[in-house]
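Anyone have tokens for Glycosyltransferase RgtA/B/C/D-like domain-containing protein? Sequence:
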Amino acid sequence: MPPKKVLIVFLTAAFLFTFKLLQVPPGMETDEGVIAHNAALISKTGRDQNGRFMPAFILSSDKMDWKQPVSIYLTAIYFKIFGMSLWVFKLVNVSVALVSLCLMWVLLRTLLGDREAVWGTIILMTTPMVVISTRIGTEAISPLLFATAWLLTIALYRKNGRLINLVLSALTLGVGFYSYKGMRLVIPPWTLMTIGYIYHKSARDWSKFFRSVGVFTIMLFPFFAITPFLEFKYPGAVFERATLALESYRHYAYYWLSNLDLGFLFLQGDVGRIFSVELFGSFLLGALPFFLVGIKKAVDRMSFFTYVLGSYLLTPVLFGMAGSMGYGHRLVAIIPAFVIIATLGIREMRWRWRALFGLFFAINFFNFFSYYFFKYPQLHETRTAFSNNLDRAYYRLATLSKKEQLVPYVQENVHEQHGEGNLFFEAAYFDRPLTLWKQGSKLPPNSLLLTNMELVDGLEKFNIDAAPLFIQKSR
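Reply: yep, here.
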């Protein structure tokens, strides 16, 4: 495939992932604020909001949730290199998605060829859950990178049999284990599948099998062996503290199969309100014909695509342990396998059917595009979920106070309203902690106030856009 065409695909994906990046969604959500705030603090001082130096996990302000290290420290690195802003924070997940896209390109080219790599990357970058989770600064997009990288290492091991690919596979699974809490249920099946493929590749050469499994296990073992220490030091960060209740096989089968339900995956919005887009599932409905044809091809004859299909089916097999159902963003890890099988289906179709279903796919995507980027941000439910839209206000306060050499103040109840998000803006845009102003008190001379009141008695309003707030200075 000529490099020019590859570049066009990549640039199209970059445009899609960054188009209206600060407007869709229309604000910050609480979990985003926790990650951004702590990453900003760590990039400045090496300590999180709880005062811990370079912690493996970060406890949220409400003491109810632990944030995983991969997203926090990757964001901190970005802040160190590019500076602190909401745009840079959002750019972290965009970068993860673009790297995943590049790995998918290599993977599909290895398995199917150049032309098919174009088809597959188009499917990946237009998948609704990829578009949605890329634009939300949580950990949900991380499994896309690790799932793609894992399948790539297995595909390369299939191709050349080199042990370095098993080393990379183990490192991918080990780091991926700490990238997202839901990956605790995903990595064990992938580990067993890797060992199963090593057995298949060894073709009953037991010395080769034990040598390969030994290398893979030695590289992966430390990531699992350290969990008791981490759980002792950060209770509940690795595993939930609730006692695991043993249920019947029907319980686990129910959750497993429910997460593979086609109606849910292709037509139903996410249960999680920040990931839910009405009438659109995790996958485009237009990709379903390709996927079904790919499944038929994968089961017709045993091949590596059968293995990929197996990874798709087995990824949520343990979800019953967490009672997880209806959360499409927790299934990001199955997207790479879905893309491979759907791409296989495109290749197997006759060109007339390919053109017909390709047209349906394009119409379905543009339907999603127009809804998500233009109607979705205006919905009341969306604005409630992403209620912190104060980035511009804090940024304008910071730049204006420096320019005018004034002391910045923020109205107390405004600053406290959105918690972690506003603390991130404070850490990102100001050199020192902000001073809070209580309504009704007098503002000192040479001060600048960010307030939700259009005009405070005794203050002079600045003619500057800080919507939905106002900036005023003392006379």
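The longest strand covers residues 407-411.
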